[in-house]
Write a structure and sequence with these properties.
CATH superfamily of the largest domain: TPP-binding domain
Strand order of the largest sheet: 5-4-1-9-10-11
Number of helices: 9
Number of strands: 11
Radius of gyration: 19 Å
Number of domains: 2
Shape: elongated
Length: 262
């Protein structure tokens, strides 16, 4: 199957890729998925913290969660899967071909590895947005405010509005993580770009995702119905496997360098 994939990759003029949490997991970034202990943070269901309702009720708690995630992600490095995708993009560009990467991850490790043409479906944990004026900027400060210097994982903290990061554009509005929370809509421009990539490519790869979350999970169907060949690379079986022309099970960091060595 690898030889057939190599042949397909060589003749493809437009390669589009969708990546999910499994790619970042190989950089030791934990995921919050499903139910039970794997979806909990300080005994809170993550879906009940990373949502607009939690922000309205207790923005300090939401920021405490994202400060924890920023701290945890801050020293993580891109892995061989990220690097293989960045190298493939450069190789295809040198051949006057097209490459687009769509990611559900918010850690920006694709950018760290050198990827350029990236659509972030769920935003970036390293970007913040003012709730008052809408200004968006990059921010990699950890902790993002001095209040979080006193954070203790063993104690219950409560942060007031005055403890939270503020906009520096003069409006003094509260900053929030520029990510898509549970219950929020994706950016129209981002999802439109993702759909265009799926419609126009002739090879579509789904890497490190369970293919259960909409609308990202529909992209492989869009690509297939538009005539593209499709491939799934994941640690275990996914619902997208039966629709794919190529299926490879294992770590993306081990599989992709070999798949792209053409």
């Amino acid at each position: 199957m690898k030889e057939i994939f190599h042949s397909q990759l060589k003749k493809s003029r437009y390669v589009a890729v969708l990546t999910g949490a499994g790619v970042s997991a190989e950089s030791n970034i934990p995921t919050f998925r499903g139910s039970g202990s794997n979806s909990l943070w300080k005994n809170h269901e993550v879906t009940q913290v990373a949502c607009p309702q939690a922000w309205e009720k207790d923005p300090g708690l939401v920021w405490e969660f994202y400060n924890y995630r920023r701290k945890m992600m801050g020293d993580k490095k891109f892995n061989l899967a990220h690097k293989a995708l960045a190298d493939l993009e450069k190789k295809l560009q040198d051949q006057q071909k097209t490459f687009s990467l769509i990611t559900q991850n918010i850690d920006d490790l694709h950018f760290d590895a050198g990827s350029k043409n990236v659509t972030r479906l769920h935003g970036s944990i390293w970007m913040v947005r003012c709730c008052k004026c809408g200004y968006v900027e990059k921010n990699r400060e950890v902790p993002i405010t001095n209040a979080f210097n006193q954070e203790s994982s063993g104690e219950k903290n409560h942060y007031k509005v005055e403890d939270l990061p503020k906009c520096k554009q003069g409006c003094d509005g509260i900053l929030r993580p520029n990510v898509v929370w549970f219950g929020e809509s994706l950016s129209k421009s981002n999802i439109n770009q993702a759909f265009l990539s799926a419609q126009n490519c002739d090879l579509f790869l789904v890497i490190g995702t369970s293919s259960l979350v909409q609308p990202a999970s529909s992209l492989i169907q869009i690509a297939k119905s538009s005539g593209a060949k499709t491939a799934v690379i994941n640690l275990e079986e996914t619902v997208a496997d039966h629709d794919a022309d190529f299926v490879f099970h294992g770590k993306a960091g081990e599989i992709l360098p070999e798949l792209f060595s053409v």
